[in-house]
Design goal:
Elements: H1 18-26, H2 30-42, E1 56-60, E2 63-66, E3 71-74, H3 88-100, H4 111-120, E4 129-133, H5 136-151, E5 155-159, H6 168-173, H7 177-180, E6 190-193, H8 212-224, E7 227-233, H9 244-256, E8 260-264, E9 288-291, E10 303-307, H10 312-315, H11 329-344, H12 347-368, E11 372-378, E12 381-386, H13 396-409, E13 411-412, E14 414-416, E15 420-423, H14 431-448
Parallel strand pairs: 3-13, 5-6, 5-7, 7-8, 8-9
Antiparallel strand pairs: 1-2, 2-3, 4-10, 9-10, 11-12, 12-15, 14-15
């Protein structure tokens, strides 16, 4: 493996490695091979998508079914399957809305969009205005523009290894090389700080984050003097889970230096961590939060930026989110149905119970496999980190082989940072499904070791 390209693996496993080639050679089902070749013939090739792993023909609950007939537990799902794939209540709501009103022409509003906005803005004390967008990157873009208009400044502070989208502006505030390299000048004024990741902390904080990286965020705010906003993921989806003190320090630093705090919760807001907003674990309130992914109920691309009512006066004369499908009644119906499912099925409580079960399973795996250097999770944002037990270096080859073997045994997940098994099951995953998934990981680790 080319260790010089480790930094390109931050957001996911690459399709350019030798292990991927071996995977393709082992899986040559005729129908699958034909469709993958057709896919390769028409789509631009990218390191994180085409050429693809396989071909999905159906998805329901926690599972996906492939053209070769195999069914896999999907503990990736691109973070969209909060209530599982094709939840009957959500699909029913979408079908009914399509028959009633499928699109809302610009300059008009519609009742589903209004109802959804009312529900979302009641979820926190201070985030009581919002804008909708077709996707998370567009919502981040709106948040950046709102920050400029509200503060009169343009600079930002964000974190290395972060992901906020693949558009030029979101890649500029993002911190992953795979989206930033070799594309020319990025947005000016986008400063970066190290993330709260003790395993690779430049401040040598040890095995536990001591929030020195939060102090460095304030150092940048002070030296620059005119930063509009700190933009960061509340927890990194790998996951990196900062201590409570980290966000309390950053919140206070933003207040002292008149910078806004924008939190990106696109992958995990609306319950994946056991709270409706992940920042609620940290007892802070951001000035804006961006949500998406699961907001569309696993069916419709949809996102939103929520912010303070006081911003409304300053942005009144601007057009910050001029999207064709901004107030999509179909997407709003899906989101309303998702919120109802979360409430009626008590999914927040369920997530917290499954978190306890998952952490126990992961700790058992760690005890039995020295290559597993750390396990961590918040709700059902879960990760197992693989490092060489002797050198402490990232176990990149082992992690990739574990991933491909797990897929052969019936479990789909992605790798983050090259060596972290990133698990994000649906919020309504069963304990039996969790047990099956961790049994597969255990077996794969045994075979790889």
């Amino acid at each position: 493996m080319d260790t010089k390209k480790v930094h390109l693996r931050a957001e996911g496993d690459l399709n350019t490695t030798e292990e991927r080639l071996r995977w393709e050679q082992r899986n040559e089902h005729p129908a699958t091979k034909d469709l993958l070749n057709r896919d390769k013939a028409v789509f631009f090739h990218q390191a994180l998508s085409t050429p693809c792993l396989g071909v999905v023909v159906s998805a329901k609950g926690s599972e996906i079914t492939l053209t070769d007939g195999r069914t896999l537990l999907d503990f990736h799902g691109n973070y969209i399957h909060h209530a599982g794939f094709a939840h009957p209540a959500i699909t029913k709501a979408v079908k009914e809305q399509i028959d009633l009103l499928s699109f809302s022409t610009r300059r008009y509003t519609n009742e589903p969009a209004i109802r959804l906005a009312e529900k979302l803005t009641r979820l926190s004390p201070s985030l009581n205005r919002l804008l909708f967008a077709p996707g998370g990157a567009e919502a981040i873009s709106m948040a950046l523009k709102i920050a400029r208009v509200v503060t009169g400044r343009h600079k930002t502070v964000s974190l290395w290894d972060s992901f906020h989208g693949a558009t030029l502006d979101t890649a500029s505030v993002g911190g992953e090389a795979t989206f930033r390299q070799h594309i020319g000048p990025l947005m000016p004024g986008t400063e970066h700080a190290p993330p709260p990741n003790p395993a690779e902390c430049p401040f040598r904080c040890g095995s536990t984050c001591n929030s020195s990286c939060a102090d460095y965020v304030e150092y940048i705010l002070e030296k620059e003097g005119d930063v509009s906003a700190v933009v960061a993921e509340t927890i990194r989806s790998s996951p990196f889970i900062p201590p409570k003190e980290y966000w309390k320090k950053v919140r206070a630093a933003c207040d002292r230096h008149n910078a806004l705090l924008i939190l990106d919760e696109i992958p995990h807001a609306l319950g994946r961590t056991g709270r409706m907003f992940t920042f609620q674990h940290y007892e802070i309130e951001p000035d804006m939060v961006v949500i998406g992914k699961g907001l569309g109920g696993g069916l419709i691309p949809f996102a939103a930026v929520l912010g303070r009512d006081s911003f409304n006066v300053k942005i009144r004369e601007h057009s910050l989110g001029h999207f064709t499908h901004e107030k999509s009644p179909v997407a709003a119906a899906a989101a309303l149905a998702l919120l109802q499912v979360i409430e009626e099925e008590n999914l927040l409580d369920h997530v917290n119970r499954m978190h306890i079960a998952a952490m126990q399973k992961m700790r058992e795996i760690q005890m039995n496999h020295p290559v597993v250097s750390d396990v961590r999770g918040l709700g059902l944002m879960l990760g197992l980190e693989l490092r060489n037990p002797e050198s402490g270096e990232k176990a990149l080859d082992e992690a990739e082989r574990v991933m491909y073997r797990s897929m052969e045994l019936g479990l789909n997940f992605k790798l983050s940072m090259g060596n972290i098994i990133n698990l994000t099951p649906p919020m309504n995953v069963t304990e039996e499904e969790l047990s099956k998934a961790f049994s597969i990981i255990h077996q794969s680790l045994l075979e790889v070791s």
